[in-house]
Design a protein that fits this description.
The complex is a heterodimer of chains A (397) and B (136). With 397 residues, chain A is of the alpha/beta class. Chain A is built from 13 helices and twelve strands. Chain B has two domains: 51 residues, no CATH class; 75 residues, OB fold (Dihydrolipoamide Acetyltransferase, E2P) (Beta Barrel). Classes of the chains: A alpha/beta (397), B mainly beta (136). The structure holds zinc ion.
């Protein structure tokens, strides 16, 4: 017996808050606003929602949101991660719940005060452990990293970028082309934090080094905000006000050389230039019956520019090691062969840990993106690396 | 001048990693290995997935390493680590594939493959931390 979820479920509603550096609101308030907007967009009532899925890093538990919105009908909930690896996997959990009959309308959300509250860029372990006499242990393996000043994700991705440069000749300008291409998208998105704030390659080259070889503009924007979607069966989604964004396929994937802990142990894998995204890609394309050549537009998880470059290779848009020349060919620029991060991504829209990528994927399929790709009928959405990852493909009916 | 904020000290009493810190306190650098099939298990863990053994121990290595990658940190994240400083990803010469992290002051010229040598420092009585320095 074989099972397939291909096309069985759709995203029928999306909702987001404003993105800012200081929301001045609780994370529950942010989640509630994004959720109510997504529910309204789907043409549903709060009482229609019977499932909730969150990220393991989200401060808002399923019961917190159910309480905040008075949702009395919840019969399924779940969470996945780690952190930014979650959003596509969260949608995958919703699909699994619906296809297996455990839920009907699942709300998937991510909310954070990522700038005014706990800042990932400053090293979560160091902030959370402030005052603790010793750091690490308990399976975190932080004791192998923090005492040496490896504190923040950007420092780890800098080690990865340096190694990619050594192995393949990738250049800082290659990374800059990614930053500029994504920024151009944000410049025409009124919801983006970098709306009407242009950046040139010269601006990129002159930006200060944060952790070499990565510069300020290789980093995403720490932000406050929330995003949510409603997942339901494609059959029910046809009754919603907007056209369904059909979930062609979802995939979560580890890899043969997985490491434990949260982030830094990925540096112990035999290669640090290929990621579980390569394995997620294989699973996803097989489940979708599609390949990279069938993708019209992509929302690629971009905590850093180097992350995009690694994923372009792992998802098969170019050969391993060719991500730099691919970016510098102009393929990612407006009008290029692979439009990416059309709302501005984590780099220039907001860092909602990749949940904003899912929303923009839906807009592209609906034909309502501010940077609409003409005739887009498929959109790849990816979530974060390195520990384990997830991805999905959205399609027209 | 304000006192230097002390660097964070490692948890040395975790069930799975304490052997590493115990060895360091004796001036030895070790990696975990399976005592049945002798596979290196790095980072340390209690079960060998190669041969399904729970019999794991520690293999002493020479303390010679090479630069696998590095980054010069120029934006300060924490007061205990004034910038600039360099984080080095060190590959162990006699346990290929096993890597550790090193910290170098400033921004020395580095290349992949450059040799490094372990040194043991005691930031506080009872806590020994393996660190790495360039072989000149
Ligand atoms: Zn074994």
């Amino acid at each position: 017996m074989s099972y397939s979820h291909r096309g069985e479920c759709s995203i029928s509603g999306i909702g987001a808050t404003d993105f800012s550096r200081k929301s001045g609101r609780s994370v529950v308030a942010l989640a509630s606003e994004a959720a109510t907007r997504a529910i309204a967009d789907a043409g549903l009532e709060r009482s229609d929602i019977d499932g909730l899925v969150r990220s393991d890093y989200d401060a808002v538990q399923h019961n917190d949101l159910a309480y905040a919105l008075g949702m009395d009908n919840i019969s399924y909930w779940g969470a996945t991660g780690v952190g930014g690896a979650a959003p596509c996997g969260m949608v995958a959990q919703a699909v699994a719940a619906i296809v297996s009959g455990q839920a009907t309308n699942v709300l998937v959300y991510r909310a954070l005060n990522g700038r005014s509250g706990l800042r990932f860029g400053r090293g979560t372990a160091m902030q959370q452990a402030a005052g603790a006499p010793r750091l690490g242990g308990g399976g975190s393996y932080d004791e192998y990293f923090l005492p040496y000043g490896l504190l923040a994700p950007g420092q780890m991705f800098a080690l990865i970028a340096q190694r990619h440069m050594y192995e393949f000749g990738t250049t800082s300008d290659d990374l800059g082309r990614i930053a500029v291409a994504v920024r151009q998208r944000a410049n025409s998105n009124p919801a983006a934090m970098m709306y009407e704030r242009p950046m040139t390659m010269d601006d990129y080259r002159q930006s200060r080094v944060i952790s070499s070889p990565l510069r300020l503009f290789d980093y995403c924007l720490e932000s406050d905000g929330a995003c949510a979607v409603v997942v339901t069966s494609t059959e029910r989604a046809r009754d919603a006000p907007k056209a369904p964004a059909v979930i062609r396929a979802v995939a979560q994937s580890g890899s043969p050389d997985v490491q434990g802990g949260k982030t830094f142990p990925a540096l112990m894998r035999p290669t640090i230039t290929t990621y579980p995204s390569k394995y997620a890609a294989d699973r996803l394309y097989a489940r979708a019956g599609l390949g990279p050549a069938d993708i019209d537009v992509a929302q690629i998880y971009d905590c850093f520019t180097i992350t995009v470059l690694l994923e372009l290779e792992d998802y098969g848009f170019c050969a391993k090691g060719e991500g730099g020349p691919f970016a510098s060919s102009g393929a990612l620029d407006p009008g290029g062969s692979l439009p990416i991060n059309t709302a501005g991504g984590n780099l220039s829209e907001a860092y909602i840990h990749g949940m904003n990528h899912v929303l923009e994927g839906v807009r592209q399929i609906r034909g309502e993106s501010v940077n609409q790709v003409a005739g887009a009928s498929t959109c790849l959405v990816t979530s974060g690396i390195p520990p384990m990852t997830s991805a999905l493909i959205l399609a027209e009916q | 001048m304000a006192d230097q904020v002390p660097r964070p000290l490692p948890m040395t009493e975790d069930e799975d990693t304490s052997g590493y810190w115990q060895a360091a306190s004796e001036g030895r650098l070790v990696v975990q290995e399976c005592l049945s099939c002798h596979a290196v298990l790095h980072l340390p863990k209690p079960f060998c997935h190669h041969c399904e053994s729970w019999d794991v121990g520690w293999r002493e290595v020479s303390g010679d390493g090479t630069v696998f990658s590095w980054t010069v940190v120029e934006h300060q994240v924490h007061a205990a680590f004034p910038v600039p400083y360099t984080i080095v990803l060190v590959e162990l010469v006699d346990a290929p594939g096993a890597r550790l992290i090193g910290h170098l002051d400033g921004a020395p010229e580095l290349t992949v493959g450059q040799p490094l040598r372990v040194r043991f420092v005691e930031p506080e009585p009872g806590v020994t931390v393996p660190t790495w320095e360039l072989v000149s």
